[in-house]
Give the backbone structure.
Amino acid sequence: MSTQAPARQPAVLRPVFPRRPSRNALVRAAARHALLLAVLFVILYPLLWMVGASFRPENQAFGTLGLWPSGFTLDNYREGWSYGTLNFSRYFLNSLVIAVLCIVGNVVSCSLAAYAFARLEFPFKRALFALVLATLLLPYQVTIVPQYVLFNELAWINTIMPLTVPKFLATDAFFVFLMVQFIRTLPRELDEAARLDGCGHLGIFRRVILPLSLPAIGTTAMFTFIRTWDDFLGPLLYLNDPERWTVTLGLNGFLDNTGVSSFGPLFAMATVAIAPIVGFFLVSQRLLIEGVATSGLK
Amino acid sequence: MSSVRGGAPRTGAAAQHRAAGRDPRGGSVGTGAGAQRDPGVPRMSRRAREALAAYGFLLPWLVGLVGLTLGPMLYSLYLSFTRYDLLTPPEWSGLDNYRAMLEDPRLAKSVEVTVVYVAVAVPAILVVSLAVALVLSRAMRFLPFYRAAFYLPSLVGASVAVSLLWRHLFAGDGVVNALLRAVGVQGRTWIGDPDTALYTLVLLSVWTFGSPMIIFLAGLKQVPRDLYEAAEVDGAGPVRRFVSVTLPLLSPLIFFNVLLTTVNAFQAFTPAYVVSGGTGGPADSTLFYTLYLYQRGFTQLDMGYASAMAWALLVVLGAFTAAMFATARFWVHYGDER
């Protein structure tokens, strides 16, 4: 807020540090960019290397440092896609179904809860909101054993229910918190106007809050996608039948199913596995980064 | 009912509410229409109706809270005092699980591994993320590009794909050794050596420094320029400015990042599982607490013991969180500027 104020003052009043772009400053800026790019290259090198290795002919996938394949081939992708008993078409479909259901569940259930916390007055509001914050920090290990027992009783093992149903019950407190923070920034005069037009709470939620909350909903959807797509422990616990495996389980199965010789196909499938995440990120990185900055999501 | 008058301008109505010491909202589903239809029927007060509506909105969350969080937590506390293998009913065994934990050498090893991992990775992540954020906060051009690129590893760092990649990078014939050979250094089988395997996982977690970095960066943008200029006028050098201006102003975010990074580090699972093939090897050197809990609970179906481990973790993390909040007033600075 105060960064703008001094700039508006007449220049005479602030003669202390005339900030003209000197040659010195230019050199320093160039050095800074060079440093940043060098660090960035080191950090991204592993990923770039993996993509390069996935296009490399099998006989030279190992221990080569270069990023650019000397011979270009798609064989690794062809081989990896249906390696032995593995079938990545199946895994992609399974992962996609789970991810879509989780997104719908999280968006619906978390926005409903968030509206109540952000806009309505009700008994025990403070205590309940404190519970939202407490469950943010709750280690998931405390509930995985009893949840497994519960889902086992319900005969949900080896189905996608244990992975998707909890999302419809707003168990990801992070997103409730994120949406509460967002809805609080919306002007209340809009609610009031809708009420005068005859809207009840459901109407205000549907016609005013939801449309205005699209950025927060987008962030929630993206993060839900990334988390469920990456999730390993959940599918590992609940999906035993290879027909129901997700991409992460399929990738993990690569090591068990094959020998050391199949690194090319492995990296091809690893690249395919993270491609949707990177793709979504490139499309929506502003939303994601604002989400991280406001709520500390991971 | 009379406080929202049909013709009153919006701001006027809101002001009236505020003047009357109430929130500028109220009413409930179909308030106005209902009032017109049957004015004589006794109605719930507006407050009661709003509460009812609120609990309606909260219903899915409440069911989840009770059915999938609080209920299971209590059940897991009960299970921790039993012997339970999922197939036969739980059998009360008092403090046996907790006593067994004290004498379990693999548990002691997993605590050691986890503590080393947290103690090395968390400070490293915080220092790296703050350092990069500081440099980025001065690079005005291309900031969105840098921010996104440095954040990218955070998105994929916990995935199976990257864990598999890591396993290969640090293998005996992997990329890291090829790099070392290029500069004339003899490498080793980083992943296969009990002395170094854990540190490859530490490195993997430091690699994902992007989310605390973005939080720091957002905080640095809020630091008023004139504070730096004032400090400069007073003759403070760059180090002094960092210690006396930047650090105090960032301390709420440092608090937040320490808390979140630590809690997350205690719960890391996928990299340890994938890199060691689920064993925690070599020689239990990557046997994270969570991985051992998984083995006891779901490989050996020793669910009572796993529950006791989970509750021990909860108590430790709870104590850590409480200690953070208790000491916050000594080092977290909430200035007037923020």
Notes: Chain B touches chain A through 117 residues (CB under 8 Å). Residues 173 and 189 of chain B are 8 Å apart (CA to CA).
